[in-house]
Amino acid sequence: MSNMNVVCLDLEGVLVPEIWIAFAEASGIPELKRTTRDEPDYDKLMKFRLGILEEHGLGLKEIQDTIAKIDPMPGAKEFLDELRATTQVLILSDTFTQFAAPLMKKLGMPTIFCNTLEVAEDGKITGYRMRCEKSKLTTVKALQSAGLDTIAAGDSFNDLGMIQASKAGFLFRSTDAIKAAHPELQAFEEYSELLEAIKKAL
Is residue 25 annotated as part of the catalytic site, yes or no? Predict the structure, then answer.
């Protein structure tokens, strides 16, 4: 009997636009365009972001106002619907529950594991709590230890661990630098190609 499969997908850059980039554009603060594609050290990146928010007097509400206007990438919901009709899907993201919730509604409420922001009563973001260390890789290993096979896809440095640890793993709409550094990984630009590759791996 073969193991049950769980497909683990990154959220930002794969199913929805990068939230911080959208907020950088909406707020006119270009420094907030830095993402995990530019800065592999997530803790460093988040401290940098929180410092900029404080400097500009911006809090959770302003970011949530921007998120309310973000739609999934064209074709993402259809891709996810078809995938979920075939197998179990789990979204593993380094974003925060306070950011992800409205986007999950637009994607048909898939299951997401992500992190949590610490927010003061006045809406100021004071810090954040990671769900666990190396959350994507740790989660994939936990699923495997529960007798599940994982297939993973993502676009950034922080997705490489779960992609490499899975029985099949793919890059999706990644950067030229990441693709060049990992020629062993199949890289796709279109949902139809990714869907086909995942179905083959099931």
Answer: no
